[in-house]
Structures are given as C-alpha cells and as structure tokens.
Design goal:
By secondary structure, this protein is an alpha+beta fold. The protein is built from 2 helices and 9 strands, in the order αβββββαββββ. It binds copper (II) ion (CU). Copper (II) ion binds next to loops.
C-alpha cells in the first residue's frame, strides 16, 4: 500500500539527479594560458550557442608584474580587435579597458600578474559566429595575442 508513496519521491529525486547531470556535462571547460611570447594557448575556442563556459585564464609568465601582465577580453562578433587595442593602448587608468568601448566587450578577465589565474563562468552567445578576443595589455594583441571564439 505504501509503494505509491515511496515510488513517487524516488522518481522525482531520480529526475533531479538526471537533470543536474545533464547540466554539468554541458559546461565547456577552457584552460587558457597566456605566455611571455605574447600568445594565448589555445587561440581558437569552439563552443555551442548559449553553452555555459567555465574559462580559467592563467598568466604563465615569471617576469616581474610590471613587465608582463595579461588580460582576456571577448568582443562582439564583427568588432575590430585592432581598433579596440589601439584605443586601449593609452588607457592605463582603466586597466586598458576603455569605457568608451565597453559596449564591444561581452565578457573578460582583467589584468593578471605573473603566475596569477582567474576563473569566470559565462554563457556563450546564442548567435553562431566568430567572436574575436584579445589581450589589451599595450602592444600584446598587435604582436599576436589574440584569437577567436567560434560559436557553432
Ligand atoms: Cu598580454
């Protein structure tokens, strides 16, 4: 007689477990390393539309902080990373993230010193396309510290 009562909660718990498992496996984990050579590794990241992305930026440098800081900024599709970098170049007061171009930035990690790392979690854009990213530390993206997030 009690089977009905026992079975229903068990079924609900099972459904909840399955649901949370599906959500966890849907997270794209990205380890993004930033090097003295002014490169990101990887420089191409592919995600699904709207996918949850857990991204850890690590500054792999062992130079003094003043010599080698890196950040990571994901821009809107169609945004020009070269223009962003050019404006950012002289904007030390804003950590090279100019307020006038804040609308171009989807998400980012601000400047990290040598051997520092920081993790952010964000939702990938829903619209398929190529979203440029860069390090806005002066001169870095011009020397190759840029890449692309592909939403597909
Ligand atoms: Cu950099």
């Amino acid at each position: 007689m009690n089977i009905g009562r026992v079975f229903l909660p068990f079924g609900l718990i099972l459904a909840m477990l399955v649901g949370s498992y599906a959500a966890t496996s849907d997270v794209k984990v990205v380890k993004l390393d930033a090097y003295n050579t002014l490169r990101f590794s990887p420089n191409k990241i592919q995600v699904q539309p709207g996918q949850t992305v857990k991204l850890t930026l690590k500054n792999e440098s062992d130079l003094p902080r003043t010599a080698m800081q890196h950040d990571w900024l994901l821009l809107r599709a169609g945004s020009d990373a070269k223009i962003y970098a050019k404006v950012a170049l002289t904007d030390k007061a804003d950590n090279y993230m100019p307020k006038s171009l804040a609308g171009e930035v989807i998400v980012g990690v601000s400047l990290l010193g040598p051997q520092e790392s920081h993790t952010i979690t964000f939702k990938a854009p829903e619209t398929p396309g190529a979203y440029p990213f860069l390090c806005s530390s002066p001169g870095h993206s011009g020397d190759g510290m840029s890449g692309v997030l592909i939403v597909k």
